[in-house]
Amino acid sequence: MTNHEQMWEELGLDVDLHKELIKSIDHTFNQTVGAQNERPASMAYFDRVLHESHGGRVAELIEARKNGKKFVGTFCIYVPDEIAMAADAIPVALCGGTQFSIPYGEKMFPRNICPLVKSTFGMALSKTCPYGPIKDLGVGETTCDAKKKAWDVVNFYVMEVPQKKSDLDLKLWRQAVADFKSRIEELTGMKVTAHRLTQTIDIMNDKRRALQKLNEFRKLDPPPISGLDALVIMQAAFNDEPTRFTEHLTELNNELDDRVKKGISPFKKGTKRIMISGCPSVMGNWKVHSLIEKSDAAIVVDETCTGTRYFSNLVEDGVADLEKQLDALAERYMKIDCACFSPNNERMETIEKIVDDHTVDGVVQYILQYCHGYNVEAIRVARILNKRKIPNIKLETDYSEEDMGQLRTRIDAFLEQL
Ligand code: BJ8
Predict the structure, then answer these.
(1) How far is the CA of 279 from the centre of ligand 1 (A)?
(2) Burial of 323 from C-beta contacts in 10 A (0-12 / 13-18 / 19+)
């Protein structure tokens, strides 16, 4: 038995089933991410983060807990990591992106809810999630219906994310941020101070700056990195220790600088430039990105939570007063333009701007099956794109491989049009 297998056994996981899960994820990874050409050498680190997400990273968290840290599992980018970190907790996003666990999720949850929710809970229900047994607190949020009702079932702490963006909503959200701070302080027994918060705001802003720099490279023709690799980096961002992640991303950005000077890219100049817009593609899910880039197009930006929504907008720094820091955090996180908001005018403005900034030739609206928020909002998104004569297509899909042939045909037909 390997060290990791022993660790999984001690955590009460079904070790044999877990081996099958890893085999299935490795298979998908090799068919998609691993099948690319001209990858930057520094991608090896981010590949490793993904591969170690059930091994080395879990061992690291177990060690940190032994040293008194608390581990907080999150499921949405509205949860302010800065606050958890300032109270000496370690926040890690735990959303599932693999088909393997979905049948287990469907044993408890309805089949007709989004695959992200079923995959996430399916991991826990099949005893293949090493994070469940070591989690000190699960933090949910009131975003889409599937998620907010799921928290009820599993009895998680829930942050109240408003549905609109008026001043009153901002007040409510500011209170939710303060309540979250109190809950975390209660969990760890540590007070969030202005000094600690200054440090964690800096850590997270540095991480966002490095991701923004990566995004700048994707504006070039040809971009020095594939959209699929950029997605791998985002998936790693949700799991890795933030300071270490930023250091490695800075290294990668330096390599990209060099590649631009030498004219190295996975794409030829003039390759059709695609924007992905809509639902997040969390770890384990590389399906649509891979299909599009295998069809000789370049994904040059992701207007998703595994893309721009995660790293746009910094938290105002240089604020020394705790209450003002909480204001700044509330304001920054409230700018995230999830389809759970109504009306979501900000997202429409963002999309128009991104299309221009990245010289996008066509937009793929990526909708996870049964995600009603993004699916209905797709009508408005298509309208603004059509008005600007930007070709666009909506792909509604899940995590399975069953519709790959059909998706490929639709993608090819779409790319022909551009
Ligand atoms: S801020 S997108 S991370 S809620 S895809 S589970 S919305 S049914 S993940 Fe999300 Fe926060 Fe919004 Fe982003 Fe529901 Fe849709 Fe599934 Fe989703």
Answers:
(1) 6
(2) exposed
Distances (CA, A) of 284 to 27, 95, 101, 103, 180: 10, 10, 11, 16, 29
Establish whether the linkage from the previous residue to 343 is cis, with ω within 30° of 0: yes
Distance in angstroms (rounded) separating the CA atoms of residues 372 and 59:
37
Helices within 109-163 (DSSP H only) = 115-125, 145-154
Ligand 1 lined by 378 (C-beta under 6 Å): no
pLDDT tens for each residue of 268-304: 999 999 999 999 999 999 999 999 999 999 999 999 9
DSSP one-letter code for 314: P
Neighbours of 83 (CB within 10 A): 27
Residue 143 CA, closest ligand 1 atom number? 4
Question: If DSSP codes are grouped into helix, strand and coil, which group holds residue 133?
Answer: helix
What is the rounded distance in angstroms from the CA atom of residue 195 to the CA atom of residue 202?
Answer: 11
Q: Which atom of ligand 1 is nearest to the CA of 371?
A: 8
- pTM for this structure? 0.98
Q: Is the CB of 161 under 6 A from ligand 1?
A: no
The predicted structure's pLDDT at residue 1: 84
Q: Judging by DSSP bridges, how do beta strands 70-74 and 137-141 pair with one another?
A: parallel
Tokens at 57, concatenated:
């990273």
Q: β-strand 273-278 against 137-141: which pairing, if any?
A: unpaired
Q: What is the DSSP letter of 134?
A: G
Query: What backbone torsions phi and psi does residue 139 show, to the nearest 5 degrees?
Result: -115, 110
Q: What is the mean pLDDT of residues 126-138?
A: 97
Q: Report which protein residue has its CA nearest ligand 1's atom 3.
A: 76
Q: Does residue 150 have its Cβ closer than 6 Å to ligand 1?
A: no
Which of 364, 353, 355 shows the shortest CA–CA distance to 395?
A: 364
Cα dist from 39 to 193, 232, 371, 380, 388, whole Å: 42, 12, 32, 36, 34
CA gap 143, 360 in Å, rounded: 29
Ligand 1, atom 7, lies closest to the CA of 144
CA distance 74 to 78: 9
Q: Is 371 in the pocket of ligand 1 (CB under 6 A)?
A: yes
**Exposure string over 42-72, b if 16+ CB within 10 A, otherwise e:** bbebbbebbebbbbebbeebbebeeeebbbb
Q: What percent of the chain has pLDDT over 70?
A: 100
* Pairwise CA distance, residues 303 & 324, whole Å: 29
